[in-house]
Write a structure and sequence with these properties.
This protein is mostly helical and 499 residues long. It is built from 18 helices and five strands. The chain has a five-stranded antiparallel β-sheet. The longest helix has 63 residues.
């Protein structure tokens, strides 16, 4: 049987990262194959970039190979299938083909490798580790957010049409009810899913993580005899503390469980450890974490809402312009819990529509490059392949295959995103009822019928990115009838971005 494209890419990625045995585990997000690498010195970054189908490579705590939406799921699953494990599982030692060793290196190469290892250790900061943990908790849930969010958006559209008497009859009411039930399968029990993923990331028992997360809902609490917040004296509310409380509680759970495993005899460990762990962390969650995390969540959401209301167009421009660099460095992951908290408390996130404008700036910049660089066939082919998913809100192919390698178009794309963000900020009150989609795909999720304001902002981002790039962002070399330039340019290379 002939080798498929995904099988070829999986094999070649393993070859260029030093073999299967140099990979500790493999997961993926919407566009990137993410690998925990044992020895970065064995990775051939130039070889990775040259693999047909690879759009870019990001070197961080995890090695991230950008292959685009749809393809990423197939390639990642091929890689774990070849290793005989599941996504996220550790790949057993000895699975690798032979790789280069340190013995044949020159003294200069060894010194360079040691310097690189030193820099990597220096960059392994607590903040970056937190970002990595947040990403690992929420990345597996992204497909669920996308699917459930879009279904909920469709239900919202139908509900608005029923309210406006455009649609009528019991059948349409039933359709809306069923769609909302499907959507609620995620959002009603989201804490539990996050708790299970957090337990996996922190090294705790996944089932215990789900149980502790379920405590946040206060199941079984009597309506006429609620528990009391020990700090304020007010009755406690189910869900208080939300996602922030869940992550903190499960982290503490992992510490307690690991400590008990060390001291409890093996013969009774299966009984004693989970019982004591749940009792201790359950009490801490109810009486400490929920009130404290609830206050933090409320203050955080209130502060962001205040900034957007007061800052208006200026705040929108800053947020829209800075989001692409945040995506580039993986910092956008830290916003996921904030989006979820805003949805839980206000029914929508005001941040997402503004941040989504960054993708619009990318689209406009890429169209400008397409218009001005028609003789550069490789560049225009890259744009044609990446633009459709960019319009749908997945901007990483455009970032790593088009704008970032050329440098200036990345900056003008950020300007376009800022212009779109300014328009959204000027209108005010435009929020999304779910996270996951962006670009055009976010339109059905805009709350309170304000989709038109979002569309105006998106068009402004397209126009801003196009104009800024067309007049100021196109390098002369990109207009020549040559191959795409910029990937190896020291001018645009950063410590975290390779390619």
């Amino acid at each position: 049987m002939a080798e498929t494209k995904e099988q070829r890419m999986a094999r070649q990625i393993y070859e260029q990262v030093g073999g299967m045995g140099n990979v500790d585990s493999v997961i993926h997000c919407m566009t990137r194959v993410r690998m925990d690498i044992k020895d970065n010195d064995k990775v051939n970054f130039d070889g990775l970039k040259k693999i047909d189908g690879v759009m870019g490579v990001v070197e961080d705590d995890t090695l991230q190979v950008v292959v685009g939406p749809g393809t990423v799921n197939k390639v990642a699953n091929q890689m774990v299938s070849m290793a005989g494990v599941r996504l996220g599982d550790k790949i057993p030692a000895g699975k690798s083909t032979a790789t280069a060793s340190n013995s044949g290196r020159s003294e200069a190469e060894k010194q360079a490798a040691a310097k690189k290892a030193e820099l990597k250790k220096k960059n392994n900061t607590p903040f970056k580790r937190v970002l990595k943990d947040i990403a690992n908790i929420f990345v597996p849930l992204i497909p669920a957010f996308v699917g459930a969010g879009i279904i909920g958006g469709i239900a919202s559209i139908f509900q608005n049409m029923i309210t406006a008497e455009t649609l009528s009859g019991e059948n349409w009411v039933t359709i809306v009810l069923v769609l909302n039930i499907i959507k609620s399968g995620l959002f009603t029990y989201l804490n539990v899913y996050v708790g299970i993923n957090a337990a996996k990331v922190f090294g705790a028992t996944e089932g215990l993580g789900g149980v502790v997360a379920g405590i946040i809902y206060l199941p079984g609490m009597l309506v006429d005899a609620p528990l009391t917040n020990i700090f304020t004296g007010d009755p406690m509310a189910a869900g208080q503390g939300g996602i922030i409380g869940v992550i903190l509680a499960v982290y503490l759970l992992s510490l307690v469980e690991k400590s008990l495993h060390k001291v409890i005899p093996d013969s009774i460990d299966i009984i004693v450890t989970p019982t004591i762990t749940l009792l201790v962390i359950g009490l801490v969650t109810i009486f400490l974490i929920m009130p404290i995390a609830g206050a933090i969540s409320t203050s955080l959401v209130g502060a962001i809402t205040w900034v957007l209301n007061v800052g208006g167009a200026f705040a929108g421009f800053v947020l829209g312009a800075l989001f692409l660099p945040m995506v580039m460095f993986g910092l956008h992951q830290v916003l996921t819990p904030i989006h979820i908290e805003m949805i839980a408390s206000q029914g929508m996130t005001l941040l997402l529509p503004i941040l989504a404008m960054a993708g619009g700036g990318q689209v406009g910049a890429s169209i400008a490059l397409w218009v001005k660089c028609r003789k550069n066939k490789q560049l225009t082919n890259m744009i044609k392949g990446s633009l459709p998913v960019g319009i749908l809100g997945i901007g990483e192919p455009l970032i790593y295959a088009v704008t970032l390698p050329l440098g200036r178009p990345f900056i003008t794309a950020c300007i376009g995103g800022g212009i779109g963000g300014a328009v959204i900020g000027m209108f005010g009150g435009i929020g999304a009822t779910a996270i996951g989609p962006s670009g055009v795909a976010l339109i059905p999720l805009i709350a309170n019928g304000q989709w038109w304001g979002y569309v105006v902002g998106l068009l402004a981002a397209y126009a801003g990115g196009f104009v800024a790039t067309y007049f100021f962002g196109v390098p002369k070399s990109a207009m020549e009838p040559t191959e795409l330039v910029g990937y190896d340019s020291d001018e645009f290379e950063t410590e975290s971005i390779v390619g």
